[in-house]
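Most newcomers find our protein records easier to grasp once they have seen one. To make this concrete, we reproduce a full record directly below:

…
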Amino acid sequence: MSLATKQCNRCHRNRTVSKFWRDARLPDGFRGICTTCSELTRGTGRRPDEVDPMAVERAVAGNPGKLNPAECREAVRILTERRLSYRDIAEHLRVASRTVTRARRHLHLTPPLCRSCASGACRWHIERTAA
């Protein structure tokens, strides 16, 4: 039994039609974007790896709107360079603090010195300086 395949208009992969949303208005009965790409770009209208400089600029200015992961990482990088704490960045971008933590980990950014270790003696700073 042969399964029908279709090419995604966004990622250009050939997938079975079961990986596409149904749409009776279209000639073949399926949307042009696979479910994976559709869910990754949900709400932003952009691919997860595309960075819209204007969206990042708005987010840094205090009006984040909807950011895809790459834009969020870029905004976190800029705000980290301004020496803001995790909590301040999370409030500024209106995201969870774990999102900021993951973005910093992805970008290999060090946080500013902890309040408890003004000399850089916390476990996080010791591990990073030893490497």
Remarks:
- Residues 48-131 form one domain.
